[in-house]
Design a protein that fits this description.
This protein has a domain of about 90 residues: Thrombin, subunit H (Beta Barrel), CATH 2.40.10.480. It is built from one helix and 28 strands. A hairpin with a 4-residue loop joins strand 14 and strand 15. The relative contact order is 0.12. InterPro entries: Host-pathogen_enzymatic-act, Lactonase_7-beta_prop, N2O_reductase_N, PQQ_b_propeller, WD40/YVTN_repeat-like_dom_sf, YNCE-like_beta-prop, YVTN_b-propeller_repeat. It comes from Methylobacterium phyllostachyos. This is PQQ-dependent catabolism-associated beta-propeller protein. Pfam families: Lactonase, YNCE.
């Protein structure tokens, strides 16, 4: 066989391999910069900031509409939620959020939006199409963390001062139970099967695992990092893989993300990231995990398979929230 024919066959084989594997997934990450009053837009393929969008004051929570065409941002100091067109980066409208919106979560159907109002000790439920408040649910003092069960039937809010996880029925908008956790709970994350809820306690230094059916804490995960003071270990953001095998926990000023076996609840390792790590978000294929690092003003990118940090991306001042969508 001639070299030319061999080369031609090699090209054909390589082309077939690429066709089988398909192109690399392309996603867009949106990072709120709390002191920059902006959103950094990141291309996850090039790992570079492609745009910076101006929003209201002290942006924190961030999420996307179901179709990815709109980006919702908590403008906490303006007592509103800015809605941006993701194609133009412009604020196209604002939602009536109640005082000091901190975090929120969108129903799986795409409507309504559940908002934690830190200064008003309530959860505001908003019809985003009509810009109408459907209900205001009283909860504990300084509500922040928001979690929604996979079937959408249970909303959980964590109150930082009351140290509670409040279980809310999404049909009646009534609190149906309260579970005591450790001091200053900041984040709530359901497992994919909806059986368990993980709640981080920033001051308590723990993550409580709650049996959802029994509404009781069945495990408290603690963290110990050599050469790091215990006071610096402050769990905040949590993300759990869809297969339920791994959990990643942001540990605040410890500048680490803990990798936890989600079945045994044992901490497997600590990944060094940027300074004052806050929130976490998977890419839709769960191959990468993005962390916001508030003091170093950057985002760390973790390769989930190897559990290694592969990139640090500079963003705006005090990055806080992060959401990721397909392009």
């Amino acid at each position: 066989m001639s070299r030319r024919v061999e080369a031609g066959l090699s090209v054909i084989a390589l082309g077939a391999w690429f066709a089988l594997c398909g192109p690399a997934a392309a996603f867009t990450a949106y990072v709120t910069n709390e002191k920059g009053n902006s959103v950094s837009v990141i291309d996850t393929t090039t790992m570079a900031v492609t745009a910076t969008w101006k929003v209201g004051r002290r942006p924190r929570g961030v999420t996307l509409s179901k179709d990815g065409k709109e980006l919702f941002v908590c403008a906490s100091d303006d007592d509103r939620i800015d809605v941006l067109d993701t194609s133009s980066g412009k604020v196209v409208r604002s939602l009536r959020s109640g005082p000091d919106p901190e975090q929120f979560i969108l129903a799986a159907s795409g409507n309504p939006l559940y908002v934690a109002n830190e200064d008003d000790s309530q959860v505001t439920i908003i019809d985003i199409e009509k810009n109408k408040v459907l209900a205001e649910v009283p909860v504990g003092v300084e509500p922040e963390g928001m979690g929604l069960s996979p079937d959408g039937s249970i909303l959980v809010n964590t109150s930082e001062t009351t140290n509670m996880a409040h279980f809310i029925d999404t049909k009646t908008f009534q609190v149906i139970d309260n579970v005591l956790v450790d001091a200053r709970p900041r984040f709530a994350e359901f497992t994919a099967d909806g059986k368990f809820l993980w709640v981080s306690a920033e001051v308590g230094g723990t993550v409580s695992v709650i049996d959802v059916a029994q509404r009781r804490v069945i495990k408290k995960i603690t963290f110990k990092i050599p050469s790091v003071n215990d006071e610096a270990i402050q769990p905040v953001g949590i993300r759990i893989t869809k297969d339920g095998t791994k959990a990643f926990v942001a540990l605040g000023p410890a500048n680490r993300v803990a990798v936890v076996d989600a079945k045994t609840y044992e901490v497997e390792k600590y990944l060094p990231v940027g300074q004052r790590v806050w929130q976490l978000a998977f890419t839709p294929d769960q191959k990468q995990l993005f962390t916001t690092n508030g003091t170093s003003n950057d985002v760390s990118v973790i390769d989930v398979a190897s559990e290694k940090v592969v990139k640090s991306i500079p963003v705006g001042l005090l990055p806080w929230g992060v959401a990721i969508s397909p392009n």
